[in-house]
Protein backbone atom coordinates (compact mmCIF):
# COMPACT_ATOMS: atom_id res chain seq x y z
CA UNK A 1 0.00 0.00 0.00
CA UNK A 2 2.79 2.41 0.93
CA UNK A 3 4.69 1.29 -2.14
CA UNK A 4 1.67 2.11 -4.33
CA UNK A 5 1.32 5.52 -2.71
CA UNK A 6 4.99 6.27 -3.36
CA UNK A 7 4.62 5.17 -6.99
CA UNK A 8 1.64 7.49 -7.34
CA UNK A 9 3.59 10.32 -5.69
CA UNK A 10 6.58 9.63 -7.95
CA UNK A 11 4.44 9.57 -11.09
CA UNK A 12 2.57 12.75 -10.14
CA UNK A 13 5.75 14.56 -9.12
CA UNK A 14 7.49 13.59 -12.35
CA UNK A 15 4.52 14.60 -14.49
CA UNK A 16 3.76 17.91 -12.78
CA UNK A 17 7.44 18.75 -12.34
CA UNK A 18 8.23 18.05 -15.98
CA UNK A 19 5.41 20.37 -17.07
CA UNK A 20 6.77 23.13 -14.84
CA UNK A 21 10.38 22.61 -15.95
CA UNK A 22 9.27 22.61 -19.59
CA UNK A 23 7.36 25.86 -18.97
CA UNK A 24 10.38 27.56 -17.41
CA UNK A 25 12.65 26.25 -20.21
CA UNK A 26 10.20 27.71 -22.73
CA UNK A 27 10.34 31.09 -20.98
CA UNK A 28 14.13 30.95 -20.91
CA UNK A 29 14.30 30.05 -24.61
CA UNK A 30 11.89 32.91 -25.42
CA UNK A 31 14.01 35.38 -23.45
CA UNK A 32 17.20 34.21 -25.14
CA UNK A 33 15.58 34.26 -28.60
CA UNK A 34 14.28 37.79 -27.97
CA UNK A 35 17.82 38.95 -27.26
CA UNK A 36 17.33 39.73 -23.54
CA UNK A 37 20.16 41.74 -22.03
CA UNK A 38 20.86 38.93 -19.48
CA UNK A 39 20.96 36.04 -21.97
CA UNK A 40 24.04 34.50 -20.36
CA UNK A 41 22.46 34.55 -16.88
CA UNK A 42 19.17 33.14 -18.19
CA UNK A 43 21.01 30.32 -19.99
CA UNK A 44 23.05 29.60 -16.84
CA UNK A 45 19.92 29.45 -14.69
CA UNK A 46 18.19 27.24 -17.27
CA UNK A 47 21.12 24.77 -17.22
CA UNK A 48 21.14 24.79 -13.40
CA UNK A 49 17.40 24.13 -13.32
CA UNK A 50 17.70 21.21 -15.75
CA UNK A 51 20.58 19.69 -13.75
CA UNK A 52 18.62 20.02 -10.50
CA UNK A 53 15.56 18.44 -12.15
CA UNK A 54 17.66 15.50 -13.44
CA UNK A 55 19.12 15.04 -9.93
CA UNK A 56 15.62 15.06 -8.41
CA UNK A 57 14.35 12.48 -10.92
CA UNK A 58 17.32 10.26 -10.11
CA UNK A 59 16.65 10.62 -6.39
CA UNK A 60 12.98 9.70 -6.88
CA UNK A 61 13.99 6.64 -8.93
CA UNK A 62 16.53 5.57 -6.30
CA UNK A 63 13.97 5.96 -3.52
CA UNK A 64 11.46 3.92 -5.52
CA UNK A 65 13.96 1.11 -5.97
CA UNK A 66 14.93 1.19 -2.28
CA UNK A 67 11.29 1.15 -1.23
CA UNK A 68 10.53 -1.78 -3.55
CA UNK A 69 13.50 -3.76 -2.18
CA UNK A 70 12.54 -2.94 1.41
CA UNK A 71 8.93 -3.90 0.76
CA UNK A 72 9.94 -7.27 -0.71
CA UNK A 73 12.21 -8.01 2.25
CA UNK A 74 9.54 -7.00 4.75
CA UNK A 75 6.96 -9.11 2.92
CA UNK A 76 9.31 -12.11 2.99
CA UNK A 77 9.85 -11.80 6.77
CA UNK A 78 6.14 -11.29 7.36
CA UNK A 79 5.19 -14.29 5.22
CA UNK A 80 7.90 -16.45 6.78
CA UNK A 81 6.74 -15.62 10.34
CA UNK A 82 3.10 -16.19 9.43
CA UNK A 83 3.85 -19.47 7.65
CA UNK A 84 5.93 -20.70 10.57
CA UNK A 85 3.20 -19.77 13.08
CA UNK A 86 0.49 -21.41 10.99
CA UNK A 87 2.57 -24.53 10.38
CA UNK A 88 3.24 -24.92 14.08
CA UNK A 89 -0.41 -24.38 14.97
CA UNK A 90 -1.74 -26.66 12.26
CA UNK A 91 0.81 -29.32 13.10
CA UNK A 92 -0.46 -29.20 16.68
CA UNK A 93 -4.03 -29.30 15.43
CA UNK A 94 -3.21 -32.23 13.16
CA UNK A 95 -1.54 -34.07 16.05
CA UNK A 96 -4.57 -33.33 18.16
CA UNK A 97 -6.86 -34.65 15.40
CA UNK A 98 -4.86 -37.88 15.19
CA UNK A 99 -4.92 -38.19 18.98
CA UNK A 100 -8.68 -37.57 19.02
CA UNK A 101 -9.22 -40.26 16.36
CA UNK A 102 -7.07 -42.57 18.45
CA UNK A 103 -9.21 -41.71 21.47
CA UNK A 104 -12.40 -42.55 19.62
CA UNK A 105 -10.91 -45.93 18.78
CA UNK A 106 -10.26 -46.47 22.53
CA UNK A 107 -13.86 -45.61 23.45
CA UNK A 108 -15.25 -49.04 22.40
CA UNK A 109 -12.54 -50.71 24.47
CA UNK A 110 -13.51 -48.63 27.52
CA UNK A 111 -17.17 -49.55 27.04
CA UNK A 112 -16.22 -53.20 26.70
CA UNK A 113 -14.25 -53.04 29.98
CA UNK A 114 -17.23 -51.37 31.70
CA UNK A 115 -19.69 -53.97 30.39
CA UNK A 116 -17.35 -56.84 31.28
CA UNK A 117 -16.84 -55.40 34.77
CA UNK A 118 -20.63 -55.17 35.34
CA UNK A 119 -21.10 -58.75 34.15
CA UNK A 120 -18.14 -60.15 36.11
CA UNK A 121 -19.06 -58.35 39.33
CA UNK A 122 -22.31 -60.33 39.31
CA UNK A 123 -20.44 -63.56 38.76
CA UNK A 124 -17.90 -63.01 41.54
CA UNK A 125 -18.38 -62.03 45.12
CA UNK A 126 -16.20 -60.64 47.86
CA UNK A 127 -12.65 -59.57 47.18
CA UNK A 128 -12.67 -60.50 43.48
CA UNK A 129 -15.75 -58.32 42.87
CA UNK A 130 -14.06 -55.39 44.67
CA UNK A 131 -10.89 -55.89 42.59
CA UNK A 132 -12.95 -55.91 39.35
CA UNK A 133 -14.71 -52.72 40.48
CA UNK A 134 -11.33 -51.03 41.24
CA UNK A 135 -9.98 -51.91 37.80
CA UNK A 136 -13.13 -50.68 36.09
CA UNK A 137 -13.00 -47.44 38.10
CA UNK A 138 -9.33 -46.92 37.21
CA UNK A 139 -10.13 -47.38 33.50
CA UNK A 140 -13.18 -45.08 33.72
CA UNK A 141 -11.24 -42.37 35.59
CA UNK A 142 -8.31 -42.55 33.17
CA UNK A 143 -10.75 -42.33 30.26
CA UNK A 144 -12.50 -39.31 31.78
CA UNK A 145 -9.14 -37.63 32.47
CA UNK A 146 -7.93 -38.36 28.95
CA UNK A 147 -11.11 -36.97 27.40
CA UNK A 148 -10.91 -33.88 29.62
CA UNK A 149 -7.28 -33.18 28.79
CA UNK A 150 -7.94 -33.79 25.09
CA UNK A 151 -10.88 -31.39 25.11
CA UNK A 152 -8.76 -28.84 27.01
CA UNK A 153 -5.98 -29.18 24.46
CA UNK A 154 -8.48 -28.79 21.63
CA UNK A 155 -9.82 -25.58 23.20
CA UNK A 156 -6.26 -24.33 23.71
CA UNK A 157 -5.36 -25.07 20.08
CA UNK A 158 -8.48 -23.32 18.81
CA UNK A 159 -7.69 -20.34 21.08
CA UNK A 160 -4.16 -20.27 19.66
CA UNK A 161 -5.50 -20.26 16.09
CA UNK A 162 -7.84 -17.38 17.02
CA UNK A 163 -4.94 -15.55 18.68
CA UNK A 164 -2.80 -15.84 15.54
CA UNK A 165 -5.67 -14.54 13.41
CA UNK A 166 -6.08 -11.61 15.78
CA UNK A 167 -2.33 -10.86 15.87
CA UNK A 168 -2.15 -11.03 12.06
CA UNK A 169 -5.07 -8.57 11.80
CA UNK A 170 -3.38 -6.25 14.33
CA UNK A 171 -0.03 -6.49 12.52
CA UNK A 172 -1.67 -5.71 9.15
CA UNK A 173 -3.50 -2.74 10.67
CA UNK A 174 -0.32 -1.42 12.31
CA UNK A 175 1.57 -1.75 9.03
CA UNK A 176 -1.20 0.15 7.27
CA UNK A 177 -1.17 2.90 9.93
CA UNK A 178 2.64 3.16 9.69
CA UNK A 179 2.29 3.56 5.94
CA UNK A 180 -0.26 6.33 6.33
CA UNK A 181 1.87 8.03 8.98
CA UNK A 182 4.97 7.87 6.77
CA UNK A 183 3.02 9.24 3.85
CA UNK A 184 1.71 12.14 5.94
CA UNK A 185 5.09 12.89 7.49
CA UNK A 186 6.86 12.50 4.16
CA UNK A 187 4.88 15.19 2.39
CA UNK A 188 7.12 18.18 1.67
CA UNK A 189 5.85 21.40 3.15
CA UNK A 190 5.36 24.35 0.76
CA UNK A 191 7.99 27.11 0.95
TrEMBL record:
| Keyword Repeat recorded | yes
Q: Which InterPro entries match?
A: Spectrin/alpha-actinin (IPR018159), Spectrin_repeat (IPR002017)
Give a yes or no for keyword Phosphoprotein in this entry.
no
Q: Which GO terms describe its molecular function?
A: actin binding
**Top-level lineage group:** Eukaryota
What keywords are annotated for this sequence in UniProt? Actin-binding, Repeat
TM region positions: none
Tell me what this protein is called.
SPTN2 protein
Q: Which organism is it from?
A: Mesembrinibis cayennensis
Tell me the lineage of the source organism: Eukaryota, Metazoa, Chordata, Craniata, Vertebrata
Amino acid sequence: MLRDKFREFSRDTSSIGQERVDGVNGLADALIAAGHSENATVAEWKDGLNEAWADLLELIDTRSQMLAASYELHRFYHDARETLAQSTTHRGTARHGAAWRSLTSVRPQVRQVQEDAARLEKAYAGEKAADIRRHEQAVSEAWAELRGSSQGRRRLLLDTVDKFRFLRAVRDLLLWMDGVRLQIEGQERPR
